[in-house]
Amino acid sequence: MSSPSPRHAIEIAELTRSFGSGQQRKVAVDRLSLQIAPGEMFGLLGPNGAGKTSTVKMLMTVLLPTSGHARIMGDDVVARAQQVRRRTGVILGGDAGLYARLSAKDNLHLFADFYGIPYRRQKRRIPELLDMVGLLGNERKRVESFSRGMKQRLHIARGLLHDPDVVILDEPSNGIDPVGARELRELVRSQVREGRTVLMTTHYMFEADELCDRVAVMRNGRKIAEGTPESLKKQTDGQVVISLGITGATDAHLSRLRSLPGIQSVNMSQHDGSQSLDLYCDQGTDPTAAVLRELRELPVLRVTRREPTLEDAYVSLVAGGAD
């Protein structure tokens, strides 16, 4: 009689990873707890140094937890590491993990041998995967000749060779052109439709908003928020956002804007010589006229008013507030 399916595809409880000791001790992951259901698409978000990579490495069984535990499909990542590897597909980006002088097809045969997949099954599985990721016709070319997008497609095929229950994606569309990124997102969706559980790290908030059923935000090793993308947007306390395109704004301008009634916070970013100002305002207020008066000596290129996005919620979470 087969054992029942676990309630959680990924279960993390009080997971902690620290490096060093004494005053040199650094906590990379601090008592992280998550529960991810089978067939769920889950996003792990956070700035560089937040603890995402250390978390993923522990789930990949390449980094031992300092304390706490994590299970994948019911198997502990330390006590049953081999079983975890059999049920988990890991998809990384860039050149790491591929043999540049081998063809795409030879790479897949090599990794299939590592997984212990019988050659008869390899002959069926590898063409299926090459077709799925759009590399048929290029399967005999050396990987060193591939674009970044083609390498990422091959990473996906490699991660799915052994038909895993859980797929971990680390920055899947980082550095890929918009068309390639869109195609990769559709590949990710297809894995969820097939019933796999997907855990994805990403810096692209629109990607997390589009793909993920739920997300968690990490900062300084701790989870500071968790929920659906829609629920995190609502945590902006009913704010509306006034966005301005402008040039020449200084810290003094930002300070004056932050002091205006109805404005909770101001975020500025640079784009090819121009500036983009996002002003997070209390719902029911419209400080646009007062804002334009404060910026009257500067050229204002555009003014728009919109509802908060997941990126707005993310910026609000990681930029301030207590852990």
- Strand order, biggest sheet? 6-7-8-3-9-10
Structural class: alpha/beta
Helix/strand order, N-terminal first? EEEHEEHEHHHEHEHEEHEHEEHEH
The outline comes out as: globular
Share of β-strand residues = 25-35%
Q: Evaluate the radius of gyration.
A: 23 Å
Poorly predicted sequence stretches spanning 5 or more consecutive residues: none
Main attributes of the structure:
alpha/beta; four-stranded antiparallel sheet
Summarize the structure.
The protein is α/β, with parallel strands linked by helices and 323 residues long.
Structure, explained:
- The protein is an alpha/beta fold and about 325 residues long.
- It is about 35% helix and about 30% strand.
- The protein has a 6-stranded mixed beta sheet with strand order 6-7-8-3-9-10, with helices on both faces. A 4-stranded antiparallel beta sheet has the order 2-1-4-5, covered by helices on one side. The chain has a 4-stranded antiparallel beta sheet with strand order 12-13-11-14, with helices on one face.
How do the helices and strands line up, and which of them pair or pack?
Blueprint: E1 10-19, E2 26-36, E3 41-45, H1 52-59, E4 67-72, E5 75-76, H2 81-87, E6 88-91, H3 104-114, H4 119-132, H5 148-160, E7 166-170, H6 178-193, E8 197-201, H7 205-211, E9 214-219, E10 222-227, H8 229-234, E11 240-246, H9 251-258, E12 263-271, E13 274-281, H10 288-294, E14 300-306, H11 310-319
Parallel strand pairs: 3-8, 3-9, 6-7, 7-8
Antiparallel strand pairs: 1-2, 1-4, 4-5, 9-10, 11-13, 11-14, 12-13
